[in-house]
Amino acid sequence: MKKILVSTALLAGVLSYAGGFRVSLQGVKQLAMAHTSAHAEDASVAFFNPAGMSFIPSKLSIVAGGFGASNKVTFQNLNTLQSTETDNPIGTPLYAAVAYRPIENLSVGFSFTTPFGSTIEWPGDWEGREMVQKLELKSFYFQPMVSVKLAPWMSFGASYIYAKGKVDWDKAVTQFGGELNIKDEKASGSGYGFGFYFRPDPKLDISIAYRSPIDMKAKKGTATFKFPSASIYPLLGLDPSTGQDKFTATLPLVEEYTIGLTYKVTPKWLISADFNYHGWERYSKLTLDFATAPVATTNPTDPTVLVSPKNFKNSKTFRLGTQYAFTDMIFGRLGAYYDESPYTDENFIPETPSFNTYVITGGVGFKLKQFGVDIAGGYALPQARDVRNATLGFNGQAKAKAFYFGLGLSYNPF
Q1: CA distances from residue 265 to 38, 269, 322, 367 in whole angstroms, order as listed
Q2: Which of 90, 104, 156, 269 is the most exposed place for a label (fewest CB within 10 A)?
Q3: CA 382, 387, 393 angle in degrees (round to 5)?
Q4: Is the pTM above the cut of 0.85?
Q5: Measured in whole angstroms, how far is the alpha carbon of residue 64 from the centre of its chain?
Q6: Distance separating alpha carbons of residues 28 and 375, to the nearest angstrom
């Protein structure tokens, strides 16, 4: 049985559902200002730092919003000069949060977000079809949280994170004219977050937060093989009538450290800055355990266990944003940030392509008494990559372009 049936690219595709694609779209107002975090004006602060709930000006705050995310990736083989472009659908990240202060120094809240995920679709006959044809990744974070005001200028907050996830991935098995689908809709895991929020001066907000890694456990994944001849199925220990096998895996979502500052230069003008540190280094290797299929020919001890090296590295993001109040009802916002890729050119994978990226953002906000409406957009400038992945035999040049837009609503009744 040749290893081409399920190469190391398979595991990269399946498990990158947790890695290589952190979606910075958890607040429309925040996105307009480069997705900075030290803004305690409504419940949208809850995802970034639960301690910020203590400084929301109203006792009850409710927010919700959504985004459209469009991206295209182009890969060119420098030997043949053949160029291939993805046909990705528009992504739709969502968020919602509520914060309530029942007594003076205690706030409770809940946040729902989709911080990891993407859908990438390459042509069915492209040269990397044995690695990926289509990959849909989704994650959902559910976070109950609490914040305690320790002093008039300082608070502490903590949250519990319950995560659910889905992966649906198609690839070709060209040697036998077949296909393989990897699917799991019930992966889950849990983690936590905590932070401190400071307001030592009415002009200055400081946010320090940590979000833990989460091990997403896929216990009932299904691998479906499709071949023109049923005679291939017994070689993999599969039922000829279904061509299916089960798999288990642990899919790690990375930890994140954030320091954010917001300074009011004047009563109408504020500037915000963030520094994020992402613990991608946990992706040293990834393991997929099939029930019966002997796909790992390099593992004589247990050929049903496939191990893939990832070699990810920790990465950083630098953000700078600003807001200006034209009136008490209309706000203009701008921002820019730089996001590092978590892997080198030698570890580039087409399942979740990642680039060193500059992003320009902007938006407007409207405040109508207790109601708020925010609109934001972002344009990404990913830097081209010289792909040299010797493990996958994948070489060439990769480019990308992307833009985002979002609409958010807020309600602070009292």
Answers
A1: 15, 6, 10, 21
A2: 104
A3: 150
A4: yes
A5: 18
A6: 6
Listing DSSP states for 105-144 in one string gives TEEEEEEEE--BEEEEE--TTSTTTTT-SEEEEEEEEEEE
Which letter does DSSP use for residue 88 in this model? Answer: P
Q: Which of 18-27, 117-126, 277-286 has the lowest mean pLDDT?
A: 18-27
180: enclosing H helix or E strand: strand 178-201
Give the domain 28-356+374-411 fold: Porin (2.40.160)
Chain length of the chain:
414
Q: Are 150 and 190 in contact (CB under 8 A)?
A: no
User: Quick one: residue 126, left, alpha or beta (phi over 0 = left, psi -120 to 50 = alpha)?
Assistant: beta
How open is the CA angle 52-55-58, to the nearest 5 degrees?
A: 120
Residue type at 377 in one-letter notation:
G
User: 119 and 93 in contact (C-beta within 8 Å)?
Assistant: no
What's the rounded Cα separation, in Å, for the pair 287 and 74? 29
> Which sequence spans correspond to the domains of the chain?
28-356+374-411
User: Phi, psi at residue 140, to the nearest 5°?
Assistant: -135, 125
How far is residue 402's CA from residue 261's CA, in Å, rounded to a whole number?
27
- Amino acid 292: pLDDT: 83
What residues form DSSP beta bridges with 397?
A: 76, 386
| DSSP designation for 384 | P
- Cα separation, 7 vs 126, in Å, equals 17
Dump pLDDT digits (tens) for 218-260. Answer: 888 898 888 888 888 887 788 888 888 888 887 778 899 999 9
Q: What are the backbone dihedrals phi and psi of residue 289, each rounded to the nearest 5 degrees, phi first? A: -115, 105
Q: Residue 298 has what pLDDT?
A: 67
- pLDDT at residue 283 above 80? no
Give the end-to-end CA distance of the chain in Å, rounded to a whole number: 67
